TrEMBL record, chain B:
Keywords: Cell membrane, Membrane, Transmembrane, Transmembrane helix
Naturally occurring in which organism (per UniProt): Hymenobacter terrestris
ABC3 transporter permease C-terminal domain sequence ranges: 289-403
Transmembrane spans: 21-41, 281-302, 333-356, 376-397
Annotated PANTHER family: ABC-TYPE MACROLIDE FAMILY EXPORT SYSTEM PERMEASE COMPONENT 2, MEMBRANE COMPONENT OF TRANSPORTER-RELATED
Record-annotated MacB-like periplasmic core domain positions: 22-240
Localization per Swiss-Prot or TrEMBL: Cell membrane
Sections of the chain in a coiled coil: none
Protein name from the UniProt record: ABC transporter permease
Main location: membrane
Its membrane topology: Multi-pass membrane protein
């Protein structure tokens, strides 16, 4: 733990990705706390986190297991509520939104990429990628398919649309997951250890894909990772320890 | 989106083949049993020839009889009693008398033909509307004079005289008595026990049946009102006629006229002496059986849906993460249950049709041309869909309320 803390202070700042200057704040976290309470134990997952994510940024979040990285991502992704503090999306606090409105915001603004892909095994690659559009009003079947094809082309899987997740390699599955996140054309992609289950070559491929997305489409990306080298390729690296942001 | 629901519903059904099979078997057998049961009852008590107007018919098969020195008995009336006192029940009411079906034997080319003979008077043919394929019924005059005439069923005509051979005017010998065939009627199912026989002949009451002052015997009174609205008047006329029967001071007769449906229920249950009110017991048992039959697959569906929750946690989490609301997810899971229920329903209809086709040729339901009732199928399917909806709604609600974070955390995809 202390080593990691030390490495946070010693580590070089990421420089690889081009920075065009901070855009408007798309996500603003102020005094965010997340406490898991059981009858006997109180666990602080996030402790007064203040963080701003700007439009077009590629931010990586690092820290040891259990330090609150994934909780942070869940709160940013409107999947979980903070115990206290304020989360603003595009300048508007989200706490007042109903469940239905939060679902709509997730659908339009946010795309998720998970470490273990989380594809629906019963659905084909194309059907998996269509998923965000399925819940979007006004998008018909034809448009859904077209956009899903386009997203799959972007990740180089245009020829695998009829396959099922079980027929793909880990890297291919993660590319499908990225295509799914892209299909809805969200402003923000939240990636939770997207290369965690992949070998280094596949991991590099996925990382390149995310960097290209950020660079060419200006998609805001927040990525949780354990891979220092990959984190260094992003514009900003945030480190967490015991629920607190340490750099 | 609905098409997508259907697609995932189909995949889910295929994924858990064993559970799907169990559920389909449960639903389809329930519907099959309901359909077959109702079809059998309908064939026994529905509006078919010869009882085409069951709402106008009453059957005096039994009466409560108390004679001096004895307790009360439930007995059949004698020919004498009906003929003497109950033949005239007012204008517009047709009255007929029939006796117990007798087993008789006829021989064709040395082969024994076991036949059921029903003795009737001429009024029998006015009360019941048989479908005559050839000839006509015998008249009251012929019946009273004891003329050796008979009306036979199409099957009997075929077996005795040969397929396509004319029967009317020919002689049929049964139990060494030669009958002249005056008419051929369409086959009557055995379940239509008031009318069923292979041949009908003029009633020749036994000495006991004809004996004056003996009210009990083995006969049956059949009554047809001019309209359904006239049935209460017919009942009242019967009561008056019964009240006019001269009796000792401590003797009493009370007729128990029953509708066709009541007589079927009575026939099904009364012989077991379970109750003095077999019709009510039949209705209670039928209602209970239907409720139980529908409840069992519903409970099975609930259990299956709840057990599916865990395995589908990942999918729920994913769908929520990408914008599905709790309502949308609940809708999806309900659609899945409904698809399963609908499939089970269609399978049940198919099974019922097959079973009824098999039953049509069996001894139990001889001549019964059974068809599954589409109206009953509609109601049964609607009931199953409602149960399916209810059984799917609770698990769907629970699944939809599952926290996306928790679902994703515990899922391994």
């Amino acid at each position: 733990m202390t080593n990691l803390f030390a490495s946070a202070t010693d580590s070089p700042q990421p420089v690889a990705a081009p920075v065009a200057g901070p855009g408007r704040a798309v996500l603003q976290l102020t005094g965010i706390e997340k406490v898991y309470q059981t009858r006997t134990i109180e666990t602080v997952a996030l402790n007064h986190v203040n963080l701003t994510i700007h439009q077009g940024e590629f931010v990586s979040v690092m820290g040891p297991s259990g330090c609150g990285k994934s909780t942070l991502l869940s709160i940013m992704g409107l999947l979980d509520e903070p115990t206290s503090g304020t989360l603003e999306l595009d300048g508007r606090p989200v706490q007042s939104y109903s469940d239905k409105e939060l679902a709509r915001l997730r659908n339009h603004k946010i795309g998720f990429v998970f470490q273990s892909y989380h594809l629906i095994n019963d659905l084909s690659v194309l059907d998996n990628v269509e998923l965000p559009l399925l819940y979007r009003a006004g998008v018909g079947g034809k448009e859904r398919r077209q956009r899903a094809y386009a997203a799959l082309e972007k990740v180089g899987l245009g020829a695998r649309t009829g396959h099922f997740p079980s027929q793909l390699s880990g890297g291919q599955r993660q590319r499908v997951a990225i295509a799914r996140a892209l299909a809805g054309e969200p402003e923000i992609i939240l990636a939770d250890e997207p290369t965690g289950n992949l070998d280094s070559v596949m991991g590099e491929e996925i990382m390149d894909l995310l960097l290209t997305l950020n660079r060419e489409q200006g998609t805001t990306i927040v990525m949780v990772t354990h891979d220092e080298q990959q984190a260094l390729k992003t514009q900003r690296l945030i480190r967490f320890f015991d629920g607190s942001q340490v750099s | 989106m609905f098409f997508s629901y259907l697609k995932i519903a189909w995949k889910v059904l295929l994924r858990r083949k064993f559970f799907t099979l169990i559920s389909l078997v449960g639903i389809s057998f329930t519907l099959m049993i309901l359909l077959v049961g109702v079809a059998l009852y309908d064939r026994a008590a529905g509006a078919y020839a010869p009882e085409q107007h069951p709402d106008r018919l009453l059957f005096g098969s039994y009466m409560q009889l108390k004679m001096s020195g004895n307790g009360e008995m439930k007995v059949r009336p004698s020919y004498w009693l009906i003929n003497q006192y109950l033949r005239k029940l007012g204008p517009g009411t047709q009255v007929g008398i029939s006796g117990e079906v007798q087993a008789v034997a006829a021989y064709v080319g040395g082969r024994k033909l076991a036949l059921a003979l029903k003795p009737t008077d001429g009024g029998f043919w006015q009360v019941l509307q048989f479908r005559f394929l050839a000839g006509r019924p015998y008249s009251e005059q012929q019946a009273r004079s004891g003329e050796a005439v008979t009306v036979i069923s199409a099957r009997t005509a075929r077996q005795y005289f040969g397929a396509g051979q004319p029967a009317v005017g020919q002689v049929l010998e049964a139990n060494e008595k030669r009958y002249r065939v005056v008419g051929v009627v369409a086959d009557v199912p055995t379940m239509r026990f008031h009318a069923y026989a292979d041949l009908w002949a003029p009633y020749e009451p036994s000495a006991l049946e004809r004996q004056p002052e003996v009210p009990f015997g083995e006969s049956e009174l059949l009554m047809l009102a001019s309209s359904a609205a006239a049935v209460p008047d017919m009942r009242a006329a019967l009561r008056r006629a019964v009240a006019a029967i001269p009796m000792d001071d401590d003797s009493r007769i009370a007729f128990l006229p029953s509708t066709l449906g009541e007589s079927v229920a009575d026939r099904l249950l009364a012989r077991y002496n379970w109750t003095s009110k077999p019709v009510q017991l039949f209705q209670a048992l039928s209602g209970g059986a239907v409720a139980l039959l529908l409840l069992l697959p519903a409970l099975n569906l609930i259990s299956m849906n709840v057990s599916r929750m865990r395995e589908r946690a990942s999918e729920i989490g994913i769908r929520k993460a990408f914008g599905a609301t709790a309502g949308t997810l609940a809708g999806q899971f309900v659609v899945e249950t409904l698809v399963l229920t609908l499939l089970g329903g269609l399978l049940g209809l198919l099974l019922a049709a097959t079973l009824l086709r098999g039953l049509s040729g069996s001894y139990l339901a001889a001549y019964g041309d059974f068809q599954p009732s589409l109206i009953v199928f509609g109601w049964a399917l609607a009931a199953t869909l409602v149960f399916g909806l209810l059984s799917g709604a609770y698990p769907a609600w629970r699944m939809a309320r599952l926290s996306a974070v928790e679902a994703l955390k515990h899922a391994r995809t």
